[in-house]
Amino acid sequence: MNFTGKDIISIKDFSKKEINYIIEYATKMVPYAKGEKYKDILKGKVLSSLFFEPSTRTRLSFESSMNRLGGKVIGFSDPSGTSQKKGESLADTIRMADSYSDIIVIRHPQEGAARLAGEFAEAPVLNAGDGAGRHPTQCLLDLFTIHTEKKKIEKNNIVLLGDLKYGRTVHSLAYALALYGANLTFVSPASLRMPKEVINECTEMGVEPTQTSNLEKAVKDADVLYATRIQKERFPDAEEYNRVVGSYIINNNLLENAKKDLIIMHPLPRVTEIDPEVDKTPHALYFKQAFNGVPIRMALLSLVSGGTL
Fold it and tell me: What is the pLDDT of residues 289-298, one digit of tens each?
């Protein structure tokens, strides 16, 4: 399966067969991600890391992935130190990065920015999150985590919790889980429900999501509980944020009636939605999930550059 030169903009750009191939390839990358093995298949390659929004896990895991495979990284994590402050257009910034590197990773606050970047760059562009839009590499690492822990993705009862309106991670993930035929339950405050277009996409693929505000009921039958924070930076109105922050808290009391093999995932950072006491339980998978960003992104960087193990 040939991914050489392919942009990674949306999970919708991939077939189920292609996703399975990426997951299989990422599995082979795990010992390289841990530093137990080494192969410089990206030696001589340069990655432009363009982060117009704050990031910890996504940015560092991309940089770690490139370094683990022998490549180099240039770029920025704060656009205030770039020519954007002088009025340079995004298109011109992308053109410059394209002339300096072999792969471009971009995170941007505006939805659609990554696809625009792909139009102006000859090098493959990987979307590291565009506003409240899509986050395909996060989606792939989430699918990889579920597949690794549950041995399958299809037919699991999966609860998506929290900010489903502005959360780009759950927008991509809901689509992908529906593609696999998982059973979906969306739990959120009424004002933060999953957008209708995402629900319609799931329905068109034969999955009818359940929508509720009752977490206690939803968690009883869940195989996977995927929590998200209430994203303050996405709210146009501070009053709206203050009304919903802290709506749900996952703690040990909540988990008393959960399945013993329930796994709890979170794209991180968390704020108050998961009590630290949960970290010590076998349910907590969010830190392992964060590590899984490295083998997945190593696999993607390798595939789009034409390198293979």
Answer: 999 999 999 9
Contact by Cβ (8 Å): 209, 186: yes
The SS3 call for residue 6 is coil
Residue 127 near residue 150 (C-beta atoms within 8 A)? no
CA 309 to CA 225: how far, in whole Å? 34
Catalytic residue numbers read 57-58, 86, 107, 135
How many whole angstroms separate alpha carbon 264 and alpha carbon 286?
A: 7
Query: Rounded CA gap, 105 and 304, in Å?
Result: 12
Q: Is pLDDT of 233 > 60?
A: no
237: helix, strand or coil: coil
Instruction: Decide if pLDDT at 87 tops 90.
Output: no
Q: Cα separation of 100 and 118, whole Å?
A: 15
Closest by CA to 164, choosing from 140, 184, 142, is 184
φ/ψ (deg, to 5) at 179: -60, -35
Residue 1: pLDDT band (50, 70, 90) is: confident
- Taking only the tens place, the pLDDT of each residue in 153-175 is 999 999 999 989 888 889 999 99
Domains located in the chain, CATH noted: 11-133+292-305 (3.40.50.1370), 136-290 (3.40.50.1370)
